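Caspase recruitment domain-containing protein 19, Certhia brachydactyla. Tokens?
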Amino acid sequence: QSYCHRLQHDMYFLTSTSRLNEQVVDKIVLQLNRVYPQILTNEEAEKFRNPKALLHTRLSDLLKHLQKKGDRHCQEFYRALQINAEQLFNDLPSRKILKTPDPTEIDTDKEQYMLNDRGPVFFLACFSVAAGLALFWYCCNSENQVIGGARRILGFSPIIIGRHVRNICMLYLEDMSRN
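Tokens:
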């Protein structure tokens, strides 16, 4: 689908209910005036930035003017719209048509929600179970090398584990090594 057809499809959406304010329209016009190759001449930019005309009229005239100029001009308008009003750019009807989901494709927004809906308590519970099992397996292994390695790790970790907890773990490891 060409950018001119997309712009024709999006024209009503862009001009209805003041979706674009004067500042954003001015920024878009200035960008189209300053971009290489120059999309709008200085006279055209002044015409579309005229504060005496209604915003709706200026915007409609700008969109019609760009459609007459060709696909490249319409493409630059979309680029300027994306830079200056990204949320509005993402909400365009033509963008929603382009984003129609492929039935074989995974919807990443839905997948992200599905992974994050459990909350922090679920994460902490899983982490605690995993850490408990790892500590149990690590300490119950009868090899002295493992206990010596654990003593070194716990001995050099006062930042990670509080001193009180570290002292209890060290006493437990010393008792294990005596047995």
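The longest helix spans residues 119-140.
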